[in-house]
Amino acid sequence: MKPIKLFSHISKDFPASIVVFLVALPLCLGISLASGAPMISGVIGGIVGGIVIGSLSGSQLSVSGPAAGLSAIVLTSIGQLPTFNAFLLAVVLAGVFQVVLGYLKAGIIGDYIPSSVIKGMLAAIGIIIILKQLPHAVGYNIDFEGDESFSQIDGENTLTALQSALYKLTPLALCVTILGLLIQIVWPKIINKQTWLGFIPAPLIVVLVSILLNIGVNDVVEISDKGLVSIPIANDVSGFFTFFSLPDFFQITNSKVWSIAITLALVASIETLLSLEAVDKIDPDKNFSPTNRELKAQGVGNIVSGLIGGLPLTSVIVRSSANVTAGGKTKLTTILHGLFLLISIVTIPSLLNKIPLSALASILLFTGYKLTNPKLFISSYKLGKSQFLPFITTIIAIVLTDLLKGVAIGICVAVVFILINNYRKAFTLVNIDNNYLLKFRKDVTFLNKAHLKAQLESINEDYNLIIDLSDADFIDIDVLEIIKEYKEHCETVNIKLEIIQGKNQNYFI
Q1: What is residue 473's three-state secondary structure?
Q2: Helix or strand holding residue 186 (H, E)
Q3: Model confidence pLDDT, tens digit, residues 111-166
Q4: Residue 6 — φ and ψ, nearest 5°?
Q5: Does 189 have pLDDT greater than 70?
Q6: CB under 8 A, 24+ apart: contacts of 197-202
Q7: Which of 194, 338, 376, 425 is deepest in the core (most CB within 10 A)?
Q8: Distance (Å, rounded) from C-alpha 337 to C-alpha 259?
Q9: In the chain, what is the straight-line distance between the N-terminal and C-terminal CA atoms, in Å?
Q10: Of 441, 449, 413, 447, whose CA–CA distance to 502 is shortest?
Q11: Which residues lie below 8 Å from residue 399, measured CB to CB, with a gap of 6+?
């Protein structure tokens, strides 16, 4: 594939990077909160995910940063270790393991995830974004930004949180959300792309308008701190450098550090490969993302993040899908979003802290709708139940559990249909005027034994049978034994048997 130049689509990548930055900022902060880590550690992770991983990755649209799927692991791990700095050492070691996995070519695992499951994961993430952002959209900000699990750490779940939000609705937050949605719908239609205004992304207008609205009505209706972005503010340059932390290398002999590192490496790698497959699926340009290179890039990113006080990183589907929706074309988008995170916390943290979460919720609601577009359900249904049932099962499982569990359940259902299809199509039996042809196709395994026995038992005496093995790529020894036993049976009854083998086959039957 011809390499894509970094600045070849800057007119599209620059505005898309602003959208990704606006989406990433509250998610980085929310995941830090849920992980029991310092708030700034999520932003540090987002910066490293954008600049370091973005520069090293071979994916054009994937965006990396702190992942909600790791928050429970991080929270538990920090509690099991003596200090947060000891946890940072585990993050560094996890990065080393990921680099090793990349050189071992473990990225091939992503190629074995069924397409129906990937499509289901995308739709499920879209539904989760909508369900999780609706409370924020109306001003109910109890759950942390970026949560993707059905059971929440606040004791509620996705559905009960919706019910609670109805009773604690904030009119100003709802107005900001509705206004934000209207701007995103109307702005692209009324602005001519040929003018300079056409390069201003609608989400940026949403944020600017929401800040002005927040400031303008502050004396009348005040939005609580929980309803606003909350970035730590450094008083000066020296105070900024206090945000960074170093790993405690004296914990290198702590076995718990090593076990946590291995867990982080495995889970982060799986989530990355899932996200990478999903992003390639929705990429309008159908770019191919090299998985082994991605594991190496993620590993280096986690090493750097751990060394300076950041959370563990993965490729994340919410930010990546926001990138696709915003029209990003190259990995310049993710690099720029990381730079914007860095510049913003240094220069304008006070201004960012005036952004209502309901404004960001409107941006994510718009993204969620595009991910779970009804056309996706219709197209999957038309492919038949062998594709639709794994698709819909994956959606339900992810929404009611979490990403990894849901995908695992979806893969199990897809494998069942693969086995059923292989079971039915492994061979065919045709009868014409007392002459039978049993033709083997594809691979025939021990799973086909019962069906094969039933077919052979249906052949009456005084009939002729040809067993054609020439098109089979693989025949299990158990199946060959059944054929051998049937051959001996034919010698005792009046069945004329002929076995045909291919040129490269030499089965001793």
Answers
A1: strand
A2: helix 171-190
A3: 888 889 999 999 999 999 999 999 999 999 999 888 888 988 888 999 999 999 99
A4: -60, -40
A5: yes
A6: 199/11, 199/14, 199/15, 200/15, 201/15, 201/16, 201/18, 201/19, 201/326
A7: 338
A8: 32
A9: 48
A10: 441
A11: 124, 127, 128, 131, 150, 158, 406
